[in-house]
Amino acid sequence: KEPPQQYDPVTGLPIKDGSPAPSDPSKPAEPGQPVPWHPSSSCLQTEHRFEPKFFDLTFAADKSISVLQTVESNSPSRGYQAQVSGDLVVRRQRAGRPGPSIEFEVVSNDPALDVAVEWNSEQQLLIRTPQRVEWTESRRPCMTVRATVWVPEGASLRHMLLWATNLDVRVIDDLSINLADGLEIGTLSGDVHSPVQVPTTYRLNSRDILVKTISGDIIGSWPLYDSLKINSESGDIIANVAPQQVLDSRPRPAVLEFATISGDITVKEPLAAAAESSKPDTVVPPRDYITTLDTKSGSIKAWVAFSSAAVAESISGDIAVEFLPVYNVSLLQAVAEPELHTKTKSGDTAVKILDPIWVEILGTEGAYEGEKPRANPDEPVDIPTNPLPTPDKIPRMPGVPFTPIGAGPWKRIPLPGGRHLDDAWRVVRRHPLADAITASSSQQERAVAIKDQPPMRHLKSSHGSVSGSMELKYPASWEGTVEAESISGKIDIRGKDVKIDSRTKWPKGVHAHKGQPWNCQVSLGSVSGDEILIVGEER
């Protein structure tokens, strides 16, 4: 009997199963169990366990913890390169274990193959693994290292930094911690795992989270408080993101930035749960969301919220994104329009914009405070008409650049000179985008009837491509002007109450509007790619 088929909520297409998932990263060896030793076939198969070391920790709001693994720089110039594996683990302190501490364990295939450690009063543990060793055996020298940070339940710290050259980093689902100045995680070749299915007891309360890898994958669930920045050069990013409440004493936008060079980006916020809820603001809290998804040759697949700005860009990868606008019910007359932009060269684009959630958003730091908010979102607002961008100048988001990891306030990660997500939701592989927008998705429909929604009057958007096709679906509540232009691609603009104002043959162009033309603006531009825009129901 065939198992029941799962369907992609964006495309409506069947989800293809990937490779079998590895063991659950949220359940490494239980407390009291020794670090596992499973050397590869190229390693000498002998086993030598070193005595574990413990480093006492103090948890307080003014204390920080750093665990850094790097390679010994003064290793012999000749010899075998040691194969190093293992984990940096952060988890809750268990009964029967030593007090708050870092437990350090090493197992290798030779007693001489040890690790140097340095511990200082700033609660920084520096682990130096050997790069090369004098070796006479025919098989390789190998070692496994594990450093476990045992955290008391509900503990507080100023900051935590985890950095590894060869090791993976694992945040375990029993953790409960508060970090005032953020969490930083970085690896060179290791993967980063956080829990996929998050229990109610799990707490990672950090207003700012930064995760960076060079070639490792980043997999799991993360909270979005004020800043969640995840970056990998060649690794994939697969993440569930849980938006959190704004901090009333210091309201800041919720900034989501995911970036890769050649890796794929897959990110999911709980849009389906918000759509099905009678109180969607309890699922996606009311605040200003700024979203940036950026890759060079990888694909982007996302379900994300945005308020003032959203950008999705790729050069050769496909873009498939479902956006949920979170709009302030008290829109200011002088506030800048929310902006949404997608851009690719040869990749295809599929975008669906849901009907917005109308909420009361607290003023954020730096926000305009000059005029009394309007109480009625259905009341027309005078917004100046801005020139529409030409196809070869589809803009990046003004004022919202992607901050490279290692820049800005995040400069402390020292850069020296298996990937699956099957438990919570399956990785959606590349798919034919031809049906991406037209597929039925009843579970994603808004709980409030369309006729009860105020018109969507506040969005400036652009979609650009060179040779890739674009298929876009905007909600029926959208009103505004459409400008589409292409050199040789087909242009298809349609939807109930959409009026075609004019067409041009060279370059091909369509000028259309729906409702009040001065409200929203959307521009489409391509060289040879086809362009399809559907607003609301098709006629």
Task: Provide a concise account of the structure shown.
The protein is mainly β and 539 residues long.
What does this structure look like?
The strands form four sheets. The chain has a 17-stranded mixed β-sheet that branches. Strands 7-8-3-12-15-18-20-22-24-26-28-31-37-33-36-35 form a 16-stranded mixed β-sheet, with no helix packed on it. A three-stranded parallel β-sheet has the order 11-14-17, with no helix packed on it. It has a domain at 455-535. The model is unreliable at 1-29 and 366-451 (pLDDT under 50). It is elongated and about 80 Å long. By secondary structure, it is mostly beta strands. It contains one helix and 38 strands. Helices cover 1% and strands 39% of the residues.
Class based on secondary structure composition and strand pairing: mainly beta
Q: How confident overall, as mean pLDDT?
A: 80
Largest sheet: 17 strands, mixed
Measured as a percent range, the helix fraction is under 10%
Q: What is the number of strand segments?
A: 38
* Total helical segments: 1
Overall shape: elongated
Distance between the termini: 41 Å
Report the radius of gyration as a whole number of Å. Answer: 26 Å
Percent strand equals: 35-45%
- pLDDT < 50 stretches: 1-29, 366-451
Region (Disordered): 1-43
Protein name: DUF4097 domain-containing protein
Organism: Colletotrichum salicis
Domain DUF4097: 181-351
